[in-house]
Structures are given as C-alpha cells and as structure tokens.
Amino acid sequence: MENKRIFLSAPHMGSKELDFVHEAFASNYIAPVGPQLESFEREFAAKVNTKYAAAVSSGTAALHLLLRYAGVGPEDEVFCSTFTFVGSANPVVYLGARPVFIDSDEQSWNMNPELLVGEIEKRARKNRLPKAVVLVHLYGQPADIDPIKKICNKYEIALLEDAAEALGAQYKGKSPGTFGMAGFFSFNGNKIITTSGGGMIVSEDKQLIEKVKFWATQAKEPSPHYEHTEIGYNYRLSNVLAAIGRGQLRVLDDRVKKKRCIFRRYRDGLEDLPGVHFMPEPDFARSSRWLTCLTIDPDDAGIDRDRVIGRLEENNIEARPTWKPMHLQPLYQRCEVIGGHVAEQLFRQGICLPSGTGMNRKDQGRIIRIIRKCWEL
Ligand SMILES: *Cc1c(COP(=O)(O)O)cnc(C)c1O
C-alpha cells in the first residue's frame, strides 16, 4: 500500500523484548516488583553511566517524586522551561507550588542560561529564590547544563533534569539527566525506547533513590502488617514492563544512529528550501534527534507550517507542531514567564516530522517529495 499511515514516532521493538517477558512469566513475577525490574534498573544506570536508578510508572510520576524529595511544597516556586510538554510542569502543581516559566535560547531551543542566571540573581537580592529548577532536554537535544548547574549550586537550588525525550543524547560526552541532583526519563509509547508506559529516575544519591522507591510503593514500612507513617503513591513500574525495557535498552544505540540518519536525510532533502531552518546542534551537544524538528518562516517560504502539516495529513502522514509553550497554555497563562518570545516563535513556525526508526528509506523519500511539492505551488 502506497498510502499506509506513517506515524510521528511509533514503538519499535527489537528481538529480545519477548524473551525477557517470557522470563517474567516463567518466574511468575507478574507482580510489580521482581527480578526484571531490578535488572532493568541496574542495566539502565550502567547505560547512562550513573550509580542508581528507580523505575516508575511514568516520567510524570518520576518528576512528582523528585520535586517532593527536593522539598517543594505550597507557596514554593519552581523554575521550568516554557518550551516543553506539560508533563514537565504539572507535578509542580500537584505539590501546591507555582511554576515560573523561562524562555528558550536559539542555539539549543532549551532553557536560556543567561535568562535563568539573571532571574535567580534578581530573586536572590529579594530573598525569593525558587525551590527547584526543572531543566528539560527537548526533542533529544541537551540544554546548556554547565552554567545552569553552576547557578543552582551557588544558591543551593535543586536541579532536576527532565531527560524524558533525551535518552541516548550526550552533553559534553555524558548523558543528560546525570548532572543535577537527579534526572528522569520516560518510556511512553512514542519515546526513543518504550515499555508502553514507564519512567526512570537516576541519581548518584543512594538515599534519594531509596526514598523515591519507598514513596512509589505506598510508603510501606518494612513490617508484615503494612505500617505507614508517610503518604505514598502507587508509582512503581511493573516487572513485566521492565522486561520490555531491558530488551529496548539493547537496541538504544542502534535507534540513536537511525534517528540521526533520519535527520540527515531530511536535512539533505529539504535544507535548500527557502525559509527552512533545522533545529541546530550546539558544540556541547550530541543530540539523539528523537524527532527531526525544523522551523518554516512563512515570509521566506511563501507557505506556513500548518499548510505543510495539512498536506502531509492528506497523504496519511502524521507531522505535528512543536510544543505549545506553557505560558501560552490556558492552564498556565496566569503564571509568571521570563522572556518568552523565542519559544513563541519556535511554536509558531516549528514542525516535527515523522521520525520513527521503523520507517524505511522509501517512506521517508515520499515524505520529502510531498514537502518539496508544497514549495512549488
Ligand atoms: C513524555 C514527557 C514527559 C512525561 O513522561 P510520561 O512518561 O509521559 O509521563 C515529561 N516531559 C517531557 C519533555 C516529555 O516529553
């Protein structure tokens, strides 16, 4: 079929996932915790080169646990990236705190370190420092972590990294998510690897990892009658899903290679079109290119982003606008925003192209031809 649906980033299983799931069934560890889960945590920590990991039911749950560990509570403020998915801000509100949104820079599309430093210094003079900073690494691209880490260290603000979209990327040779107090990843259906749903917290801090695991299992004290002194959640990843994750981890490097190759083919096929600008890759970053993103400047292109998405949809191809900034969301429009114009522009002009690693060269060629045709009208 010439016209089969092409998705933005469909799940792509390797050859080992089912073997591990069979192991889980054979051992009858269908219950949440079990040997697959422990292996997945150990293997994941080794993969991103950090000491400890805790597998949970989603990336959003991971951030909820981390913000609580950072002591975030009612009346507190948490600085977040405005250009992101809503999952990197909602848990701030679960805890009764308020997000303050920081604009992106043009070189990484992620949090602008200069804006952040300026705002924190200003707050320090007024004695109104945020309790935490949630730093997102969007579309597989690391933010400029060093200056952000430096200012957080200076004022003892907890730095939490939202690396949900950035597994397999590198910042100065190391995995994003491993620089702050803790970081987290997501295994939601369209992420670079998936367990159908799930998340992972990583940290060098053993105490942190033990505490979040404790909260994630209803804060159950070690006693046979289920003693409770703290409020907890049902946030642990299932042993069966961890088995899928173990298989997926074994194909991660290959997926990154493929994602970068998909990006290069789009760039080679489209970069000469007037008004087209691909998401840059700064010197400090090796992006996983989870999704190939670009902007279309309608003044130079003579066509806008929405028309291109529409043309692709007519051909049964799923492309999407880039994330709508949080400060433009009805949910968060009353929150404070520092800057905002860069993220607004990236949203107005940005498009994410189908980047599934299961997509073949022919499919991608078809997408490129359809996009090029938009410029000939
Ligand atoms: C997917 C995602 C999350 C949330 O992860 P879930 O596993 O879907 O809860 C958080 N932040 C970003 C940037 C994401 O893309």
Structure notes:
With 377 residues, the protein is of the alpha/beta class. The protein folds into two domains: 17-249, Type I PLP-dependent aspartate aminotransferase-like (Major domain) (Aspartate Aminotransferase, domain 2); 252-374, Aspartate Aminotransferase, domain 1. The protein has 13 helices and 14 strands. The chain has helices at 17-26, 35-47, 59-69, 90-94, 113-126, 145-154, 206-216, 239-249, 252-270, 298-301, 305-314, 341-349, 361-376; strands spanning 52-56, 77-81, 98-102, 132-136, 158-162, 170-171, 182-186, 199-203, 276-278, 285-286, 292-296, 320-321, 337-338, 350-353. It has an eight-stranded mixed beta sheet with strand order 1-8-7-5-4-2-3-13, with helices on both faces. It has a four-stranded antiparallel beta sheet with strand order 9-11-14-12. A two-stranded antiparallel ribbon has the order 6-10. The longest helix has 19 residues, at 252-270. The radius of gyration is 21 Å and the shape is globular. It starts with 16 loop residues before the first helix and ends with a helix. Pyridoxal-5'-phosphate (PLP) binds next to helix 3.
Task: Note the main attributes of this structure.
13 helices, globular, 2 domains, four-stranded antiparallel β-sheet, Aspartate Aminotransferase, domain 1, eight-stranded mixed β-sheet, alpha/beta, single chain, 38% helix, binds pyridoxal-5'-phosphate
